[in-house]
Each structure stands twice: as C-alpha cells, then as structure tokens.
From TrEMBL:
Residues 11-91 form the Mycothiol-dependent maleylpyruvate isomerase metal-binding domain. The lineage of its organism: Bacteria, Bacillati, Actinomycetota, Actinomycetes, Micromonosporales. Signal peptide: none annotated. This is Mycothiol-dependent maleylpyruvate isomerase metal-binding domain-containing protein. SUPFAM superfamilies: DinB/YfiT-like putative metalloenzymes. InterPro entries: DinB/YfiT-like, Maleyloyr_isom, MDMPI_metal-binding. NCBIfam families: maleylpyruvate isomerase family mycothiol-dependent enzyme. One of its GO terms (molecular function) is metal ion binding.
Length: 214
C-alpha cells in the first residue's frame, strides 16, 4: 500500500464524513454517540482537530495524559464543538480532506481507522446504515492487531490470548487459542472498545473480551 493510496483513502473518508454530518438534524447532532460522554456533534468536531490544533497542541496533550489518546482528545474536543457548527465541520472536512498529520503517535493508518470508527460512533446510535469499504476495514483491522495501535487505540492486554476472525472479510489474526468471530465492522468497534457490538460476536474468547472492555 503506497502512501499516495493511503492518503487518497483518508481524503475520501473525510468527504464521506462531511456528507454524513451535513445530513444530520439538530436533534441528531445532540444525541449521545458511542464515545462515552461525547455527543454526535462532539465526535464530528473532533475530526477537525488535526488541522485546527496541529501537532503542537495535540502531542503535548497526549504526553500530558500519559499517552492516553482518548483522554487527550477529550481535553481538546469541547472547545472545537463550541466553535464549529455542523455546516462548518462539513466545510472543514472538505477543505482539508488531503491534510496530512503523521507524527509518530498517529500514523496514516491511525487516521484511516479513526475516521471509520467515528463514522460508526455517529451512525449506530442514530439507527443509520453506513457501509464501510472492505479494503479499508482490512487495513484498519491489521493496524489494530499490530504494535503501533497498542496503548493508544487498543489498551495493552485487551488482545492477549485472543484470535479474531472476520467472517465477511475472510480475515483472521491474533496469536491466542480463544476465538472471537463477527463481521469486520463489529470487530473494528470491539477492538476499539465499543461494548455495543459484543452481543454480535461469537466464539470462545468473547467472554474474556467482554470483561476487558466493560
């Protein structure tokens, strides 16, 4: 996978997110998302953080919170949500679709994964269908099972002893004897700690994964 191809995928996901956010009604924007403590509007605003805040504010926030990316994001997102309307968020995503933000802690694969997961964080609680691109899901699943996601996207220890199988993608990864099976989308959300999908999974490792997430 070339860098050019990866950046094109990220740009396309930002355009898709812009269309989604611009289509939402005020009541939908105020609804809780799958991100604990964040509304749909908060999640949407968070996607603009890389170019509005930049590495000079994001990286120190991550360091200040012990490299816990989600806690650093929570510190910054409230300000963005207050400043940006849904229309402005959509415009920002289109204008900056090709923006690159690649410090060591947030690789292009991390950005691609963030966009896919947050799209579902918005759509699932609103009862909206949103298809993910299989090729991109595969890239993100591989990223989440790899070392670069450990400690940021995936807490250390969550995946220990587990093997994950995406039945719709013909994909499997992980070193464990206990299996967790489901759709690629459900695994993507489970790996990033969304308990709403746990009942959609099957296999001998689901109980262990549930205990680690909840």
């Amino acid at each position: 996978m070339s860098t050019v191809d990866m950046l094109a995928m990220i740009a396309d996901e930002r355009h898709r997110m812009a269309e989604l956010i611009e289509s939402l009604k005020p009541g939908q924007l105020l609804a809780p998302s799958l991100c604990e403590g964040w509304t749909v509007h908060d999640v949407a605003a968070h996607l603009c953080a890389p170019w509005i805040f930049g590495a000079r504010r994001i990286v120190p926030a991550v360091v200040r919170h012990g490299f816990r990316v989600h806690r650093a994001n929570a510190e910054l997102v409230r300000e963005l949500a207050l400043d940006l309307t849904a229309e402005e968020i959509g415009r920002q995503l289109r204008m900056n679709a090709e923006f690159t933000f690649n410090p060591r802690l947030v690789s292009p694969l991390g950005q691609l994964t963030d966009l896919q997961v947050h799209g579902q964080d918005i759509c699932r609680p609103l009862g909206l269908a949103r298809d993910l691109v299989p090729e991109r899901m595969l890239l993100s699943l591989e990223f989440l099972l790899g070392p670069r996601a450990r400690g940021s996207f995936v807490p250390r220890g969550r995946l220990d002893g587990l093997r994950f199988i995406a039945d719709d993608l013909e994909w499997a990864a992980g070193q464990g004897l206990l299996t967790v099976r489901g759709t690629g989308e459900a695994l993507l959300l489970a790996l990033t700690g969304r308990p709403v999908v746990l009942d959609e999974l099957s296999g001998s490792g689901v109980a262990a994964l549930r205990a680690r997430i909840t």
